[in-house]
Design goal:
The structure holds two protein chains of two kinds. Chain A is α/β, with parallel strands linked by helices. Chain A is 18% helix and 30% strand. The mean pLDDT of chain B is 94. Classes of the chains: A alpha/beta, B mainly beta. At the A-B interface, β3, β4, β6, α5 and β11 of A face α3 of B.
Chain lengths: 249, 203
């Protein structure tokens, strides 16, 4: 409880508070579907509070009778991007993701709130290992874009896991940044289908890095335990989990 | 506030359960895991709970000692700020009232900081953990609390958003003045009442 001493001290107090913004009415400027299960929305947000890479936004939908539903989505855009970019995975029976994937068109307005979150953020000045599963790569795209703007691509190492290459959003951008891409349901070059292993992460890990892990609950648990097994100190591992619990009810 | 979102119907509201606070949905049998850190491995032998700070009698209990305290159960609903709610849960452990009776908070104690073995913290007004509203729990549905849900022991404050129910809790520190915990420093609300939708700072 007393292990304070600065922004890098595990879950202790931060030196600097992350930016936070209130509700805004954003205008949808671009909509496309980079993979079969995802939709990419680029929003113009008036009076925007600049975010840090890794932060998220809330999208709130309101029906005619006042009923509302809201969900959080990580940003893929860098703070320097004039638009805010969300990548949304369409979940089975997804009340909000289904609407965003099937109904939203350019010119629509959406209520959004952000940026939110001050833990899973990369401030652009520290070495980091990014380990993502599926759409868990989204905050890492924001980090890579931020690094590119700062000319600090040297600070980031990336490993991502996807079922198949075709299902990985931002695949070209991730590969161009040197990401290791592991496919769990198909062969990839000479590598057979399989999960991310400690052997994959050893060459990417360096002491002093902060490790960021983002993905489904089961992926995040497995990847963070791989890092712990490699000797990465638990306070240096930041985890963002999403979606249902998966295997166990 | 903005008007309706074009073309959004939402799920049918006919069966919307009155137990759902605004903006929440029923997650059913699932129980999502949302943790910002690697899951720690804590054995009952190495776990203890301490109540300290503004108290007359700082006390610690080991696993065995805590299990000899009068048992207490919670049956009801839980609500996560990420918008899922889970109905009809059953947790068992010890009431926080029992711990505080032994520690005897001083008259100037008004807030509590809960600390987990991982260093995770969350702050609560004292009145939100007294009067039968908060527990430390080691059982869910009659089984040992799974580690990914905070086992061996977590705090349970079910009338507030679930980030207040610190997993792997090991210390309750009574404070004269409020101090922000982990998520509260990172933009989340200091109190977190789901019925008032107190999700983020400023709500």
């Amino acid at each position: 409880m007393t292990e304070t001493g600065g922004a890098r001290a595990g879950m202790g107090p931060r030196l600097r508070r992350a930016p936070a913004g209130g509700w805004r009415t954003a205008t949808v400027r671009e909509v496309d579907r980079p993979t079969p299960r995802t939709v990419r929305l680029r929003l113009e947000v008036p009076d925007r509070v600049d975010h840090l890479a890794g932060q998220h936004y809330v999208v709130r939908l309101t029906a005619e009778d006042g009923y509302r539903a809201q969900r959080s989505y990580s940003l893929a855009s860098s703070p320097g991007d004039p638009l805010v970019e969300l990548l949304v995975e369409r979940l089975d029976d997804g009340e909000v993701s289904g609407y965003l994937a099937d109904v939203v068109e350019p010119g629509d307005t959406l209520e959004v709130r952000g940026p939110i979150g001050g833990w899973f953020v990369w401030e652009g000045d520290e070495p980091a290992l990014l380990v993502g599963g599926g759409t868990g790569v989204v905050p890492f795209v924001a980090m890579l874009r931020t690094a590119r703007e700062l000319g600090r691509e040297d600070l980031l190492r990336v490993a991502v896991s996807t079922r198949t290459a075709a299902e990985l959003p931002y695949a070209d951008e991730l590969r161009a940044a040197g990401a290791l891409v592991v496919t769990t349901r198909e062969r990839s070059g000479i590598r057979p289908a399989g999960r991310l292993t400690a052997v994959d992460l050893v060459p990417l890990w360096e002491p002093g890095q902060t490790a960021f892990v983002c993905g489904s609950a089961s992926f995040a648990e497995a990847a963070s335990q791989l890092l712990v097994g490699l000797g990465v100190p638990a306070p240096d591992i930041r985890v963002e989990r999403f979606g249902p619990s998966g295997t166990s009810g | 506030m903005a008007g309706p979102t074009r073309g959004f119907l939402g799920r049918s509201r006919r069966e919307r359960d009155p137990r759902l606070p605004p903006g929440q949905y029923d997650v059913g049998a699932d129980w999502p895991v949302l943790t910002a850190e690697p899951t720690p491995r804590i054995t009952p032998e190495t776990w203890s709970i301490t109540v300290d700070g503004r108290v007359e009698n700082p006390v610690s209990w080991t696993w065995d000692e805590a299990h000899r305290l009068p048992p207490s159960e919670y049956r009801g609903d839980i609500h996560c700020v990420t918008t899922w709610s889970k109905f009809d849960t059953r947790f068992a452990g010890v009431s926080v009232d029992t711990l505080l009776e032994a520690a005897r908070p001083t008259a100037d104690a008004h807030f509590v900081m809960a600390t987990a073995k991982t260093g995770y913290t969350t702050n609560l007004p004292l009145e939100d953990v007294t009067g039968g509203k908060a527990w430390i729990v080691w059982e869910f549905d009659g089984e040992p609390l799974p580690v990914e849900h905070g086992g061996p022991v977590r705090l349970l404050v079910p009338h507030l958003y679930f980030w207040k129910s610190a997993k792997w809790v090991t210390r309750l520190t009574l404070l004269q003045r409020d101090q922000q915990g982990f998520w509260e420093q990172n933009g989340y609300h200091d109190r977190g009442d789901p019925w008032r939708e107190q999700r983020y700072q400023g709500d």
